[in-house]
């Protein structure tokens, strides 16, 4: 739980150190995202899903799989925090355009267009390995879809705002996996 607490603490401390919002996604899109992310965290951390099909093992849990899960969780949270630090005041929990928005291409953004989502996906994969149950697999699938759809909405806004500069960036950096 330590990496998840670190993630929540860092997000909470930095949530109010952002630029003013110029353009914002519709409320319905935001509520959809929040509801599905809440489901993901329920699947990963609640004992409500430990019985039935979702509570069955999809792998044999061992100290090796638990260790791999812990390492991936820490790595994913570290990537998300590093990315959040690099994006700085341009960050928003919602798909939005900030006043004086900048196209950040440093740190993890040099190779990934959405490193926060990549980090969270990696952390969820780590947690799924650690618990070894089908509920973790479902959580991975949901978070991958939710963040991919949100990233597509962000990309549409960035293309509208930065045009050819963003198109060039798309050629340089990967979507959720790094371009090497």
Folded structure, characterized:
This protein has 180 residues and is mostly helical. It has one domain (23-172): Up-down Bundle (Four Helix Bundle (Hemerythrin (Met), subunit A)). It is 62% helix and 4% strand. The protein has 6 helices and 2 strands, in the order αβααβααα. The chain has a two-stranded antiparallel sheet. α1 (2-14) runs parallel beside α3, α2 packs antiparallel against α5 (134-162) and α5 (134-162) runs antiparallel to α6 (164-172). The radius of gyration is 17 Å and the shape is globular. The mean pLDDT is 94.
For the termini, the CA-CA separation is 31 Å
- Radius of gyration from the CA trace? 17 Å
Name the CATH class: Mainly Alpha
Number of helices: 6
CATH topology: Four Helix Bundle (Hemerythrin (Met), subunit A)
What is the domain tally?
1
Integer average pLDDT: 94
Query: What fraction strand?
Result: under 5%
Counting DSSP E segments of at least 2 residues, the number of strands comes to: 2
Chart the SSEs and their pairings.
Elements: H1 2-14, E1 21-24, H2 27-45, H3 63-87, E2 96-98, H4 115-131, H5 134-162, H6 164-172
Antiparallel strand pairs: 1-2
């Amino acid at each position: 739980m330590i990496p998840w607490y670190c993630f929540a603490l860092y997000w909470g401390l930095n949530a109010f150190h952002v630029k003013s919002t110029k353009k914002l996604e519709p409320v319905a899109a935001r509520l959809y995202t929040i509801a599905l992310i809440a489901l993901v965290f329920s699947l990963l951390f609640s004992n409500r899903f430990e019985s039935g099909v979702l509570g069955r093992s999809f792998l044999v849990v061992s100290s090796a799989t638990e260790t791999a899960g812990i390492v991936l969780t820490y790595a994913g949270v570290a990537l998300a925090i590093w990315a959040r630090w690099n994006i700085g005041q341009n960050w928003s929990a919602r798909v939005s355009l900030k006043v004086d928005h900048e196209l950040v291409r440093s740190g993890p953004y040099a190779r990934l267009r959405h490193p926060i989502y990549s980090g969270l996906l990696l952390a969820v994969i780590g947690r799924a390995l650690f618990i070894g149950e089908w509920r973790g697999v479902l959580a991975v699938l949901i978070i991958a879809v939710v963040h991919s759809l949100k990233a597509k909405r962000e990309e549409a806004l960035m293309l509208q705002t930065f045009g050819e500069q963003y198109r060039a960036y798309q050629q340089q950096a990967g979507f959720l996996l790094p371009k090497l």
